[in-house]
Write a structure and sequence with these properties.
Three copies of one chain form a homotrimer. By secondary structure, the first copy, chain A, is an alpha+beta fold. Chain A has eleven helices and 18 strands. The first copy, chain A, is globular, with a radius of gyration of 23 Å. Chains A and B meet through helix 8 and helix 9 of A and loops of B.
Chain lengths: 436, 436, 436
């Protein structure tokens, strides 16, 4: 439970909000690289943390991210011409490069100062992991920017990953909380009561794991902090005296990885990016550090699988709020817990059902909400510190973002640290570059 | 005409408004019983007086009416599982009975106080006359609730009635005023000028009555108060020296019966229930105390007839504000007064045309608006009294709601009391249980 | 650039705004005459400067323009019956003439004062040039109203003109600024770079003119004030030592004529009428003072041509904001400057792209924006003066609105006054009645 002011502090990321300032210290995904497939192609409207921007790939392949308002008469540069290393307004031909500086002002007298000073707001961009990232914060005094976080999927050959995104009609924070809350698997993603665990084709894992998860609605949670966030482990009884561990990563400010992966299986992760305070993009990535994804896996992911939703050409989930997620009450009664197809869609349904911004003042949390509580404290502390002038350090630890999480089965009585060391080779889940 | 504050006082029924408090002393229709056809069926979203609620029929057939927000993390219980005598949130399995009390909290430690105290807001419900009623007010000190009003249609065998509802896109009060204003029949529901009275197939009564109504646009009104409201009679010249009386009932806080019924004919009534301040449900019922409705009558009512609108599966009128009521200007010129098909639809058109909330500060009322004036005074006085701590008595007079109204033809010079006594056997139109 | 208060002052035309008061000193187009084709036909909803009104043509062919709210109970007179020289409310039959006075109140006692005093707000109307005009301001002390401005197209036989309108989703002022800004032709309406000037079938003029316009993005502007506004001339290099002049008229408060017409060609003009602060109607007229328009020209204009947009039966452009103007990025790359078909549609796209109300506080104007600056100063001065009690004189100069503008090719070094005299026979572009 949060007070109303703390709920605002956690959730609001507009430019003038404390959390908005905090988020702007980190590189943010703003588009998939494939949304800008070619040099001089059509510019693309994007909205990030309430800011309406325009992305375009120039003649040399560089991506510009600019405020789309021509400073001459306020025309929308979206309608502009992307050509010859710049974006030209079609009203009177003013033209700007990817850095926002004017490169041509055809109706301005040659001796005007405008030619030197005129510019539009532009944010630095990078491409990494098939995603265009932007740095939308202030430039540090020495001019040096942090580097894009080295999320493992981005460091691999493209053949070993699948990267996409989906739109969600709610605030970023409750979507992220859904990712950190691995206890809800005991309900939301299960078969209907009475249906054997091996009958749900949409289930995220095999029959034994499902049975363990189903049997224990109250896993015991342990949390380990690290340089850029924390890892959380949920322990449930497995068969015999064994414990079934499911671990998930949180990395600042809004990255997460999923808990089901056993060694050799594909890893899944997401980055939650506010569109505005009432909607977010969830960039979702699947990777396998050891082998290429198969054609069948790619095909499956394109049709929606696990936390990857089935989306249309605009990355809007096909089963969404506006069509009631195509919830089928007969399916819900006799087959699956929700009557909604797809783990990603079930998550979206329940997260969007909390309201555009979840009202955390009326909650009644329990011990299984441990990771959610830690997440909120971490973010609120970071934003508060920044408001007092203390810059966050995580943005400068880009190598610390090589993180994995997943499942492990181990004997009773062992510590979370032991489990992490045994499963990932490090207590925090950090992966040495060499072992990727 | 009302002042702006009085217009607010009359029309606004949110929980914090004086009229909202007053309405909450009365049982309110919240759904048709057939919207919850089976035990453990899908829950149904309802909105009553601005409150967003969820109705569900549990395993034992009882109807729960609850606030649809899970107190754990705020997920919407609409997506929940209605099973084993309760509604279960699909996020983490919290489950609540029709009384709102938690019956299962699977992720809460056994020794937690939550198991005893956790509950969601729930309102008592009853079923009467194929309608689910709820009491949304405070429970009196002695714990005893009033009983549901014994509207006559509800006391009859189902074969003698037809019960439905229709949505209207305006405040409840102006819709009810339309029902009490029987003078508008001389215009709104008539054939076009020049068209004989027997040519309008949609007309609510036979040719003579139509001719009398048409001929006299200024009926003389008499009003008699009774325990739960009042009855109004409008007197027009009939043939020769006869007077054609049309009477209508108003019962607190928002019930009404219609004026056309002659002995032996079907009775019609409605209850106006605020969805919010800008829309209402009009529960509409047809009954014949003496015989079953015929198959032909039922068929006719299902396709819209008289004050029963033609509606879709969501009880939205087919001819409505969004499609301009399918008004046909050629029909209006040559056939009917409005060019809109259906008495109910004509009423909806004109009432919705007054705006979402009619602006009563700019009106110019006349003598034919007598019942409207009495209605406003009665409601405003009741809400004002309650605000001063004086509880209304009508909710406790549930037997007094057995009321009829209709038409009568009588010699000139007789009093309204005489007419009521002769037509209904009582001055107020109250029907003895025996004579039903 | 304007301050925020001045931007409001310029753009807002509601009844209580200074510019709203100023506009109400002038006759305003409120409908095309053909929207009210017959006596006693259906009334038509219109909205002008934020006021929701109803226009109807009565039995004698007169056009009434009234507030559509029946003063009895507030029903919408739009649903009323237009018959026997008045509009009758279908609720209780109250009837009003084109002057707004009650002519029948059937449910009002014969001795009531209502019969003398009851009225609805009504504005005087005139028809001129196939347009219904209204005077929505206060009646001067002597009761005399100004006359409708004698725009030339309205003085000609109907066979010599084509009159239509189009809706635009932005404030009136930025649309008008687009008309006065003839410098944008060098970009917005051009072929794509590299495409010869003779390949764009939508181009507003012939190849030579296009080439001159394209070659010179920075015409030199001259402005001459006159009794009812000003004329602006833009001078570009033509072939050899010649200058290509393009002139445009501005007439108070919101009329304009276009710059391309050479002697013998058709003239084009428009009047910008606020619907509310966020949308406007652009009444658009084409005329030839010397000959009838040909069937081919009429056909072409009906399908959209030059500043005449291609519109649907409600005068909504087919290529509009809601469908992205059907912008084709391939066309934009290889054929036309914008990828949008139609000069009118290109204008609408760029003007609507400035926002519902252009933010003039962030502009950076140049010398080519001279006419825009003059327009703003003129309007703001007029509204300010009126707010101080100084009535504008232009409304009383209806003969001064016979104005033409267009193109001329002349030797270098001649003054704008000379050009106007040579091209139009007067320095201001005013046309003597005789020479029409």
């Amino acid at each position: 439970m949060l007070t109303a002011p703390d709920n605002d502090l956690l959730t609001l990321t507009g430019p003038d909000q404390p959390m908005g300032q905090y988020f702007r210290r980190y590189w943010q995904p703003v588009a998939l690289s494939r949304e800008l497939p070619e040099p001089d192609g059509p510019p693309v409207r994007v909205q990030v943390m309430g800011e309406k921007l325009l992305a375009f790939r120039d003649t040399q392949g560089r991506v510009g991210l600019v405020e789309p308002v021509c400073p001459h008469r306020g025309a929308d540069l979206y309608y502009g011409r992307n050509e010859d290393c710049g974006l030209r307004c079609v009203f009177h031909g003013w033209k700007f490069g990817v850095d926002g500086k004017a490169v041509d002002l055809p109706n301005v007298a040659p001796d005007s100062n405008y030619h030197k000073t005129m510019a539009i707001k532009a944010y630095p961009t990078r491409e990494f992991g098939e995603i265009v990232w932007a740095y939308m914060g202030p430039r540090p005094d020495d001019g040096r920017l942090p580097e894009v976080p080295m999320l493992e999927f981005g460091t691999l050959p493209a053949s070993r990953r699948y990267v996409t995104k989906k739109r969600q009609e709610c605030n970023w924070a409750q979507a992220l909380e859904g990712a950190l809350d691995t206890s809800h698997f005991s309900f939301l993603h299960m078969p209907a009561p009475g249906v054997p665990s091996n009958e749900n084709a949409d289930a995220p894992a095999d029959e034994r794991r499902l049975a363990w998860i189903r049997r224990d609605p109250m896993p015991k949670f342990s949390i380990l902090d690290h340089d850029v966030g924390f890892v959380v482990g949920g322990a449930r009884r497995a068969d015999g005296q064994d414990i079934y561990w499911r671990t998930a990563q949180f990395a600042l400010p809004s990255h997460s990885t999923t808990p089901s992966t056993l060694p050799g299986e594909n890893y899944f992760g997401y980055t939650f990016v506010p569109i505005d305070d009432h909607a977010c993009w969830i960039y979702t990535y699947v990777w396998n550090p050891e082998r290429d994804l198969t054609q069948e896996e790619i095909h499956q992911l394109k049709s929606g699988h696990g936390v990857v939703a089935e989306v249309d050409e605009h990355f809007i989930p096909l089963r969404n709020l506006s069509n009631g997620y195509l919830l089928d009450r007969q399916e819900q009664k006799h087959k699956t817990y929700t009557g909604v197809r797809g783990v990603a869609e079930q998550d979206a349904m329940i997260q969007e059902s909390q309201g555009r911004i979840a009202d955390r003042t009326r909650e009644h949390l329990t011990a299984t909400d441990a990771a959610i509580v830690r997440f909120r404290r971490t973010l609120i502390a970071g934003a508060r510190a920044l408001a007092q002038g203390i810059e966050p350090q995580a943005p400068w630890r880009h190598q610390a973002y090589r993180l994995r999480s997943g499942s492990w089965i181990a004997a009773q009585g062992r510590s979370f640290e032991d489990i992490m060391q045994e499963r990932f080779g490090s207590v925090t889940g950090h992966i040495d570059q060499a072992c990727a």
